[in-house]
Amino acid sequence: MAKKKKKKRGLRSSSGGSGVETSSLRPKYVSKKPPCGIKCPNHNHIRKALMTVSKAEDYGKTPDQAFEEAARIFLETTPFPSVCGRVCPHPCETDCNRIQVDGAVGINSFERYLGDFALEKKLVPQKLTDQIRPEKVAIIGSGPAGMSCAYHLARRGYPVTVFEAFPKSGGMLRYGIPDYRLPQDILDAEMQRIVDMGVELKVNTMVGKDVPLDDLRKEYKAIFVGLGAHKGYKLRVDGEEADNVIVGTDFLHKVNVGENVDVGDKVVVIGGGDTAIDAARVSKRLGADVTILYRRTREEMPAYEDEIEGTLEEGINIEFLAAPISIATNSDHATGMKCQRMELGEPDDSGRRRPVPIDGDVFDLEFSMLIPAISQEPDFTGFEGLIEGRDWIKTDETHKTKIEGVYSGGDNINLDIAVTAIAHGREAAEAIHTMVTGETVEKKEMATIDHSKMFLAYYEHKERMAVHSIPVEQRLGSLDAEIVSTWSQDEATTESKRCMSCGQCFDCGNCWSYCQDNAVIKPLVKGEDYKFKLEFCNGCKKCEENCPCGFIEMH
What we know:
Elements: H1 2-8, E1 27-29, H2 35-39, H3 46-54, H4 63-75, H5 81-87, H6 107-120, E2 137-140, H7 144-155, E3 160-163, H8 172-175, H9 184-195, E4 200-202, H10 213-219, E5 222-225, E6 231-232, H11 248-256, E7 266-270, H12 274-285, E8 289-293, H13 305-313, E9 317-319, E10 322-330, E11 333-347, E12 353-366, E13 369-372, E14 376-377, E15 406-408, H14 418-437, H15 472-475, H16 489-496, H17 510-514, E16 520-521, E17 531-532, H18 542-545, E18 552-554
């Protein structure tokens, strides 16, 4: 009966039995990194947070106790779980080992719940010291990179002053992302939590223009530069100086600060990235018929796939394999443009196939407003000394620039997603602390666990928790109607139980129940490690073979 029960649990057997010497190898616990944490640019402790909630009942914790602990696990690495739970394209989910069973764990939605829980409960991030250090640090820019750096320095006791050119903090999070994706009150709350840690915020202060960078270098021990990339690229075609042609970053900025932008009845957006998608969806909410013009195919679009899907759901047309040639104007006003049909040729430096014009295949598009959103760059006025050749700001692996005491990160190094900028800020804060104190952050070398090293048959099929979206007609009636809602606590708990704890013991008991030689000792207290009594072990490998998460190895 015992064997049948074990096989129903998905256990597999190995040759050998009690008292038979099958191998000189012996079991050993070897912790491994889960792919979710590796794929996250900020290396958030995702597995630890998920399993804290998943095992809460087993370990005698109330749901609120478990979620507070899990939220604090995220706050160890990021000050923005609520923000990232809304805007991050969640690369952490792309290599989730659960995909081999039934689908990736909903990490992004889980993080969003944790972030909102932390805000609701007014959780105060834990400082790493009560000491207030004498070394002052200046942060230039209050976007995700700058405020992440400020947060992690404040946790270490540094007096931090953030200089922000705009009237409010947030950078591109505030001025480049529409409210329907990131509500202002959520951003305000996570920004305020950083200020409440003692960070001084000076808005309407443009370093490089109002305050020279060299003046700050005399006053502060270190400086972190996180300018962001608020300056949209021009099309470089005739007619784009017309009054109704506005680059995507400027358009979103105007809308986000509450300006009345008259888009008219027909908007054309050029580009295939997130800014283009956001500009198109905002224009739709402002009442226009919207067309996106993109010179490659959907497969090459850099925008987040869910955002592309949402765009199509909302009735926005996408003209693929098309590019502008010229803009027709009447006085200072643009009326339409001539477009060129394209086909894909050989790959370019980005790895995407290069669009090639099809001779003689042109067409016209009329519009009331044209929004080019092909790319963006920082405004380096006052920071020219940090530029190297034709490149943007360059840093070493510690985010140090060529100027002593000056560090940098975020979009002024290279355009990327918000969580990458958050990682840059955290890493720079660690580097500044090392520069000041000589203390280094210990980093353990550890292999990443691959699904081929796990016993996937152990895990039962569990459907991924659904994400709830409001109907299209409800979305289009408002600029700030948030499309996706946050999970309930029960939903977040249910999803946490889909985590397979890749590479780390989660108390399944397989090693103990399948060992026929009493070589595995079950702990008296749940959560403590199982012990190996190696003198009883005959090396049959059953514990390794039936360890679902790949934590046990034979050596």
